[in-house]
Every structure is written in structure tokens, then in C-alpha cells.
Design a protein that fits this description.
about 170 residues; mainly alpha; 5 helices; about 0% strand; elongated
């Protein structure tokens, strides 16, 4: 005689195993997404930050101090310092105190970056590419598992944030 309760228990156990395996895959996906987010927000290296400081200081000087008026014979073209708008003051300040400003910012950056992991742009892109490749593989494994479970009659809900480009792939491309 067929014992239906034993069959149903085995089916429930199998479904629980499938859900457990899928939960592990989804935990890997979550960990990789967290790793990607952390990598995106790692601070740049001190040298890269100082190049950005130099670019910023150069821009302040260039954009607020115009020398083209000195080249004209017309006195109306001479630059004027409009203290009401403070338009040229940042550039003049940078021009006269650049080394002091740069040293102050460098000290603050060194303090802020002490003991922290930093990356340059190339390192960040390489790390993100590696994480994305691994994430792609794990997402494909998740989709394969979902499809296999569905084919075996075990209903599985896809994650709301499952990647559509992977969900829509034919079985042979997973």
C-alpha cells in the first residue's frame, strides 16, 4: 500500500532543500552587492585627492581672475575688483596663499585617510569589473535553480530585483 504521508513529507523536504539552496545563492548575491557598494564608495588615494585639490585651486584662479582686460588699450576693459560681489576674491586668495591652502588640505586628507583603504580609479574599475563578473555568474546560477525548481513542480518566486537580462536568457545561455 502507498503511504501518501511519506511521499508528501519527502516532497516537502525536497522543496525545503531547494528553498534553502536558493537562500544560500541569494545570500551570495546580497554579499556581492554589498561588496560592490563598498567598493564604489572607497575613498580615492591621497595622490589622486591632491590632484583633485590642485585642479580645484587652478579652477578658482582661472575662473575668477581675468587677465584679458590688461591686454586692451581701452581702460573700460581693465578688470575691476567688485567687493560687493566678491567675484575675484577667491582667485586672489588662492593666488596669494596657494601653498598654505594646499598644505592645510593635505594635512586634513592625511588625517581622514589614515588607516583607511583607498583606491585609484583604475583599481576601482578593476575591482568593480571582477565583482560584476562574479555577480553575473551567481545571478545566472540563481536563475538556473529557479527554472529547475519550477520544472520539478516546486514553485519559486523570483527576487523583485532579479536582473531582467538574465531572467530573459534562454536556458542554454545560463
Amino acid at each position: 500500500m502507498l503511504n501518501i504521508s511519506k511521499l508528501l513529507k519527502r516532497q516537502r523536504d525536497a522543496a525545503a532543500d531547494v528553498h534553502g539552496a536558493l537562500a544560500e545563492i541569494r545570500a551570495q548575491i546580497a554579499a556581492l552587492e554589498d561588496q560592490r557598494a563598498r567598493t564604489e564608495t572607497l575613498p580615492r588615494t591621497f595622490d589622486d585627492a591632491m590632484r583633485a585639490v590642485d585642479d580645484w585651486l587652478d579652477g578658482l584662479e582661472r575662473d575668477t581672475i581675468s587677465i584679458s582686460g590688461f591686454l586692451s588699450d581701452d581702460p573700460r576693459d581693465l578688470p575691476h575688483l567688485d567687493l560687493g560681489k566678491f567675484s575675484a576674491l577667491p582667485g586672489l586668495f588662492v593666488a596669494s596663499c596657494r601653498d598654505l591652502i594646499r598644505a592645510h588640505i593635505a594635512a586634513a586628507l592625511e588625517d581622514r585617510l589614515e588607516g583607511r583603504e583607498t583606491v585609484n580609479a583604475v583599481q576601482r574599475e578593476e575591482r568593480l569589473a571582477a565583482i560584476d563578473a562574479e555577480l553575473d555568474g551567481v545571478c545566472r546560477a540563481e536563475e538556473r535553480a529557479v527554472r529547475e525548481a519550477e520544472a520539478a513542480g516546486v514553485p519559486i518566486l523570483r527576487r523583485a530585483e532579479a536582473r531582467p537580462e538574465i531572467v530573459l536568457l534562454p536556458d542554454g545561455d545560463l
